[in-house]
Predict the 3D structure of the following.
Amino acid sequence: MSNLTIYREHPPAEPLGVFTEPADIARELAPIGVRFERVDASVALPDGAGQDAVLAAYQAVVDAEKKARGYNTVDVVRIRPDVDNVAQARQKFLSEHTHSEDESRIMVEGSGCFYLRAQGKVFQVVCTRGDLIRVPEGMKHWFDMGPAPLFAAIRFFIRPDGWVGHFTGETIAERFPKYAP
Ligand SMILES: [Fe+2]
């Protein structure tokens, strides 16, 4: 189930709040400029569906998101626990970083966990199938796919070749609980 846990940026690490209702998650994230909403596929989509089937099933919401933010490219990324480079894949965005464009995703299978740093707090958002999350450009964040990653997500880009992580060099991610679904 999707959920949001809000922490102070500095210890003590006792959560300030935990939310599980999508409307509550969206309301708590809106003030920091993060969009969160639940979206439905137009048809039941089997796990492992190919990119074209995934994009077709979510076409209406994909088109709306492209139009809203000027994205011109979408793809579907899929990570499974049995791929060779899974540890590397997890490590890649496990340290705090920013991007020079939005990180907009629709989770269409499995789950993953965003950690968003803003206003002296860290917002830990577990995303599951049917969640759309849009992290604005420049926001400090990291992403944990967990020790046995299993997810597929639609990704939106303005410049796919320009979508890289700019690492802040800060070790804040190490102070927070890892994602363990
Ligand atoms: Fe990122």
